[in-house]
Write a structure and sequence with these properties.
The protein is of the alpha+beta class. The protein has helices at residues 5-10, 20-33, 54-61, 63-66, 87-90, 97-100, 139-147, 160-170, 189-193, 258-264, 266-276, 343-348; strands at residues 17-18, 42-45, 70-75, 105-109, 125-129, 150-153, 173-179, 198-199, 208-211, 226-227, 232-235, 238-242, 290-291, 306-308, 321-326, 358-360, 365-367, 372-376. Strands 5-4-3-2-6-7-12-8 form an 8-stranded mixed sheet, with helices on both faces. A 4-stranded antiparallel sheet has the order 1-9-11-10.
Length: 382
């Protein structure tokens, strides 16, 4: 049963429709930081038929407010949404019933077409059929990508790596949705580490809800993931990925000293006492770094390398911290603070792999959870 985006991706059942409110909340994060972030820009929404895409609806309805130059929306012939016949297409003299099911479609918004005095979703023009099926990798969609300034969409999660590479090939700004697990992809993590990609603002309460095609197979989803009454999917391991700046990236994480954390953070004390039998940050047996189990417990008075949860990225400010590596990630073996443990210790370990941090708990040696390795910038002490 699918319980996460990764399960849905593996089942090739990963066509989800993003909620309007979530798109609006995310874009507001960029607009609040820079009100002109989209002004004069051409935005491409690949695989976003305006009849069902909330991305298209949002940017069309906010065309004037954002100061857009042009909005381009394409649909993919093999996508579930493409089966629906939109009024934009049906009422156009370019409509061709024979091409509807086999060709991608192109929709463009540039000006007020209905004389209402406003530019909005009603002014979207069906500009005809693409020569192919509208796959983002096709030559014609690549040309649209090259024309655009910003690419925004919810791509199929099974193609996330390829889609991100497609964007970087053209050196475009972007805002896309992906599984949180994408953080550890060998094609993605180096971009995060080098601050070429970062996480966008989190979904409200960390929860993302998606609509699905009417004929989607819902039997693969576990109880609690799919709600038959609302026909929405609920995922927690879902994130925005972007290279557009916003305010939260520059907020400094307020830190307390190790002594203060040990004395006043009850959650940290319970964790350390239960797992290690001592109130101090444990040191990895194969990494020259300390284990910090909770982001809020990063000590202000420690300047060495720390292993922190992946969720640290929600609080990551590149002006305050630098990311050094990720355990179990290709390339981590080159980090200077890594070394192999002895054969005796390795014999005690079950599962895991050679590039995961090892901790000596009360009872035995164990692999820790996947960890980011970070260090404070020496000029910052918060």
């Amino acid at each position: 049963m699918a319980t996460s985006l990764s399960d849905a991706r593996n089942a090739k059942n990963d066509e989800f429709y993003t909620q309007y409110s979530d798109i609006e909340a995310e874009m507001n994060a960029y607009i609040e930081y820079n009100p002109d972030v989209f002004r004069g820009k051409t935005i491409l929404l690949p695989c976003d038929d305006p009849e069902w895409s909330n991305f298209t609806k949002y940017f069309a309805n906010n065309f004037e407010h954002l100061g857009l130059k042009k909005l381009i929306s394409t649909s993919y012939a093999k996508g579930a949404g493409n089966k629906q016949l939109t009024l934009f297409e049906e009422q156009s003299p370019l409509y061709d019933a024979q091409k509807h099911d086999t060709h991608g479609k192109l929709f463009v918004l540039t000006h007020d077409t209905d004389g209402s005095g406003n530019i909005d979703v009603d002014d979207i023009e069906f500009s005809g059929y693409l020569e192919g099926d509208g796959d983002f990798r096709s030559e014609e969609v690549c040309k649209l990508r090259d024309e655009a300034d910003v690419i925004i969409t919810n791509p199929p999660f099974s193609l996330f790596r390829e889609f991100l590479a497609w964007i970087f090939e053209a050196k475009k700004q972007f805002v896309i949705i992906g599984s949180q697990n994408a953080i550890s992809y060998k094609e993605v993590f180096p971009l995060l580490k080098e601050n070429k990609v970062w996480l966008g603002a989190p979904f409200p309460s960390g929860n993302a809800y998606f609509d699905i095609p009417k004929d989607a197979d819902t039997s693969i989803y576990a109880k609690g993931v799919y709600d038959p009454e609302t026909r929405k999917l609920h995922f927690r391991n879902c994130r925005w990925f972007t290279n557009i700046d916003f305010g939260m990236r520059h907020e400094f994480l307020q830190l307390d000293t190790a002594t203060h954390n040990f004395k006043f953070n009850k959650k940290l004390r319970r964790k350390l006492e239960k797992d290690f039998g001592i109130i101090e940050y444990p040191h990895y047996d194969n990494y020259d770094a300390i284990e910090v189990p909770f982001t809020e417990c990063i000590p202000s008075d420690y300047d060495g390398v720390m292993g922190v949860p992946i969720t640290f990225l929600d609080k990551y400010n590149p002006e305050q911290f630098e990311i050094l590596g990720l355990s179990s990630h290709i390339g981590c073996e080159t980090l200077p603070f890594f070394h192999r443990v002895s054969d005796d210790i390795q014999k005690q370990l079950v599962g895991g792999n050679a590039w995961m941090p090892i901790l000596h708990t009360n009872d035995s040696y164990n692999y820790s959870y996947r960890r980011l390795f970070i260090r404070k910038r020496l000029s910052t002490h918060f």
